[in-house]
Task: structure prediction
Amino acid sequence: MPNKETPSFEGLYKAHHLKVQRLCRMLLRDTAEAEETGQEVFLKMFKQYQTASWPNDWSAWLTRVTVNACHDRRKSAWWKWWRSSNGEVQLAEYPSSARTPEQEALGREQRIHIWRAFQELSGRQREVFVLRYLEGWSTEEVAKTLAISEGSVKNHLFRAVHSLREALKKNGEGS
Amino acid sequence: MNPCLEDKTLFLISEGEVSDEQRSHLLSCPACAARYHEMGRDLRCITQTLQQEPPALRIAARAPIVYKSLPLAAGVLLAIALLWGESRLSRPDPSSEQIANGDVSQFLEQVSEAIFERGSIREVETASSESDLASVQVALGENCSADCRELFINSLSTEAKSKTKTVDQPVVAIRRRPVDPAMQHMVSDRGR
Result:
């Protein structure tokens, strides 16, 4: 039950919906599916909000639920993928924060290469990379959330980082 | 001197997995230290890029899976067709086999009916050895030599001995079919 110390559902939604949507779009290639999954996540959050057992950290809970929801969605999306004949991978406009000087230094081509390389990573590699480097979780937390070993997390991470660095170097060589 | 560290080792070092030996190598080897710092810089750059707004682009459309799987499906179909054709070639055609068997049985039936055309099996069994011998001679024509005749008489005597021991067996009824006129004519010519 909500009380004075805990935020309202609206407050939680406002605080986290951009992050959840962004996470869904990063883990799922399809923008429409990402939006649907985001809504599912907030539906789950609403149900959880109505129960007596609230998580200590709503942000971590939402991240975990989002990652699992995207994972389930990817598993069940194969038939949709089969049916969709266009196969276009969309990179929509994501919520962004202010750019750093280093970011500004990166050329547009380089960013395109990095994003393409990221979208071409396997689902698991994307999950691990997002949780470890974009969400800042520890390897142990990632392993626990994804129900895999820490060694496996590091292997996926290394492969993801290797592919992304290759994309970065390719751009450096090309430009 | 220790060999330079691999990329994966450098990555694991960044993840906190480092042995004393690796740490000392990293501190003493400028090339590995430079690679380590480069990896950290790349990782920062990648992370910042992915945290920002992506460029407005569409990744090149993948070929639809239907098109991608066409060669595979064609290959599978071809393999199935080849296997089926091979099995068809290696196995004799049951219908042609049946036809051949039917021809042989019909021919044998016609021959037997031509030989025993004057009576049933019962009559043949009860006929005298002389008449049997005459029938065989008629059937074989001039090829029936003295040795052949002696062999036939011996077989008849042994058959008679065995008949006395065995119980009376049921008579097998043979359905008479119309004999091929050409065959009947041939046999009758030989008999003459």
